[in-house]
Design goal:
single chain; 2 domains; two-stranded antiparallel ribbon; 3 helices; 21% strand
C-alpha cells in the first residue's frame, strides 16, 4: 500500500485498511463494499466508493469512483455544518 500511495501522490492523504479476508469481511459488510475474487490471479477487487460523512458522523452522500473534485469541494462545507 505504501508503494501504491506513493505512486499516486497520496502518501499521507489516504488511509487504507489492510488485513486478512476474515478480518475485513465485517468492515466490508458494514460499509456495503462489494468484493470479487479472481482465483486465477490470486487477486481481489472491490467497489470504490467515497463516503461524505458529516461532522456528527452520519453518512450524507456516497460518491462513485468517477466523482469530480468539484463535487467534494461543494459538499465539504455542508458536511462540516451537519
Amino acid at each position: 500500500m505504501r508503494k501504491f500511495l506513493a505512486q499516486c501522490g497520496a502518501t499521507g492523504r489516504m488511509d487504507y485498511l489492510i488485513g486478512a479476508r476474515r478480518q475485513l469481511l465485517p468492515v466490508w459488510r458494514t460499509w456495503g463494499v462489494a468484493v470479487s475474487v479472481n482465483k486465477y490471479q490470486d487477486a481481489e477487487a472491490h467497489s470504490a466508493l467515497v463516503f461524505g460523512i458529516t461532522a456528527s458522523g452520519k453518512i450524507a452522500v456516497v460518491y462513485s469512483s468517477n466523482f469530480t473534485p468539484a463535487q467534494i469541494v461543494h459538499d465539504v462545507p455542508l458536511l462540516e455544518r451537519s
